[in-house]
Automatic annotation (TrEMBL):
Family: Belongs to the ATPase A chain family.
InterPro entries recorded: ATP_synth_F0_asu, ATP_synth_F0_asu_bact/mt, F0_ATP_A_sf
Transmembrane portions of the chain: 32-51, 87-110, 116-137, 157-176, 182-204, 211-229
Compartments where located: Cell membrane; Membrane
Superkingdom of this protein's organism: Bacteria
Alphabetical list of CDD domains matching this protein: ATP-synt_Fo_a_6
Organism classification: Bacteria, Bacillati, Actinomycetota, Actinomycetes, Streptosporangiales
Name of this chain's protein: ATP synthase subunit a
Alphabetic keyword roster: ATP synthesis, Cell membrane, CF(0), Hydrogen ion transport, Ion transport, Membrane, Transmembrane, Transmembrane helix, Transport
Task performed by this protein: Key component of the proton channel; it plays a direct role in the translocation of protons across the membrane.
Amino acid sequence: MRPSDDFQAPGLDLFHFPPLWPGAPYWLTKPILMAGVGIILICALLWAAFARPALVPRGLQNIAEMGYLFVREHAARPFLGKDADRWMGLLLSIFLLTWIWNLMGVIPLVQLPVTSFLAFPAVMALTVYVIKIYVGVRKWGAGAYVSNLIPRGLPKLAYVLLIPLELLQNFVTSLFTHMLRLAANMFAGHLLLAFFSAVGFWFLFERPTPLGVPVGVLGVVMAIVMTGFEMFIQFLQAYLFVLLTAMFIGDSLDPEH
């Protein structure tokens, strides 16, 4: 059997996209297009839901309010308390946009989770990072803001290690963990779905053999199962991303909360 006839598992080429058409700017690729579509879709849905709100919500307004209540009760209020409603515009937008970008990985013909490209979670995480520092410094002042990050009441010797670790965690690692958690999960999920789909296509259609057909059937079954599981992970990662956003902002506004 020639090497070209061997099954080739999907690799990093899944995440390489040329410009949309010859001569287009190098940055104008499918991920950029899908990111823009996601933004427009969220704006359109929220406008349609709340442009003329009814006292008794129905249809799209009812669905949008369910999303609003979910973010408020399970992300905003636990960390922002009485300030939760002030931040709901930002938190709801981040949650819905992250979720839509994630879901694009299982939408037929699109099949591309925008958040698997690190640049997109990085922009959102960096925005949250700037906001949390800004609101903390604005409320407490720079010195008190940094001081609030250090727990009180510990033995003095403990602060030799604790202070550098707390500063590192709040000013460096929190930013990277915020964006990497989302990007890594979407990246891995996309690869898994592509792998099982490729197995099914190869052994059932491309190179069917008596021994290969059962493997192909298993690949199709696993692709279906993993699609359902990935949809759950996509929702969960959107929730965790907005949960961390609320936690970071809440810690800046009220370190004792």
